[in-house]
Amino acid sequence: LKRGRGHLALRQTDMSPFKLGENIATTKGKVIFRNELFELIQYSPLTETVAETPVLFFPPWINKFYILDMRKDNSMVRWLTEQGHTVFVTSWVNPTPELARKTIEDYMKDGLMTAMRVVQEQTGIEKMHTVGYCVAGTLLGATLAYMAAKDDDRVLSATFFTSQMDFEFAGDLLFFTDDAGIKYVEAKMDEAGGVLEGQVMSETFNALRAPDLYWSYVVSNYLMGEKPKPFDLLYWNSDQTRMPRALHLYYLRNFYRDNRFSKGELSVDGIELDLSNVKTPAYFQAAKEDHI
Fold it and tell me: Coil, helix or strand for 42?
């Protein structure tokens, strides 16, 4: 309760063994660009020659980027660089109330499309492979629809990790995204000055899998007095981020509650975001049991 400032902040893992840059998120790279929404990391090559077409990752802004670069033996970034790929990853800002008015259009243009432009400038290559993860995958789909309407074909392929385009069957999360749920989240963001605190999102995901992510820790930590074991994934899961008010409310209302994206009812700059116009080769990885 003290750690959660009045909320139950269950300790799911021993945080002490993990040190960013030492035994987690250790693949060598450098920040080559920064604006108010993200930093762009380019990872150092591990092969003498590299594939011509770079790979650009968009992790979700509701979590930290290093889900893609955990330990040495389970880092996707490291594995790709070992295969000769030039890898770029966006690291999204942890927004403060000053960014409360940032919209999905800002994240599309100043985020995804700006990162694409920087990758082109950095490599001298016109086209790239892209990967969108979770909410960033949803936004990548919207961005591809926008780009298709403008005959922008710089994305050679798009891969989606656990990314929804159609929210009709969004499962238990729909219980949190009806009018009452959205009103509750909006009040929480107003209390925090225009951002959704990371703990609120964490509590939501814990509630989705309450036996695994909630009650098991109540029993083991509180009732049995056991110390949780070190687990890199749960360390990352506890490294929470905030979300800006305007972006998050738009996402909850238009994607989850009303499912307007899949119906072709959203637009940017007067351009309808019609997924049927997207001809980019795409691969979808769906998860049945676990959102991560």
Answer: strand
Residue 130: strand pairing partners: 56, 158
For the chain, helix (H) and strand (E) counts, in that order, are 10, 11
Cα torsion 47, 50, 51, 54: sign: positive
Q: Catalytic: 134?
A: yes
- Contact predicate 246/103, CB 8 Å: yes
Task: Using DSSP, state whether 181 is helix, strand or coil.
Answer: helix
pLDDT by residue (tens digit) across 189-220?
999 999 998 888 777 777 778 888 888 888 99
Residue 275 burial by Cβ neighbours in a 10 Å radius (0-12, 13-18, 19+) = middle
Which has the closest alpha carbon to 173: 140, 145, 142, 138? 138
Question: Which of 144, 115, 143, 134 lies closest to 55 in space, CA to CA?
Answer: 115
DSSP 24: B
- 276 by Cβ neighbours in 10 Å (0-12 / 13-18 / 19+) ranks as exposed
What predicted TM-score, i.e. pTM, was given to this entire model?
A: 0.93
Structure tokens at 289: 């049991």
Catalytic residue among 93, 134, 139, 247: 134
* % the chain with pLDDT above 90: 75
Residues 6+ apart with CB under 8 A from 200: 185, 188
Q: How confident is the model over 69-75, as a mean pLDDT? A: 93
Query: What does the alpha-carbon distance between residue 178 and residue 175 come to, in Å, rounded to a whole number?
Result: 6
CB-count burial class (<10 Å; 0-12, 13-18, 19+) for 288: exposed
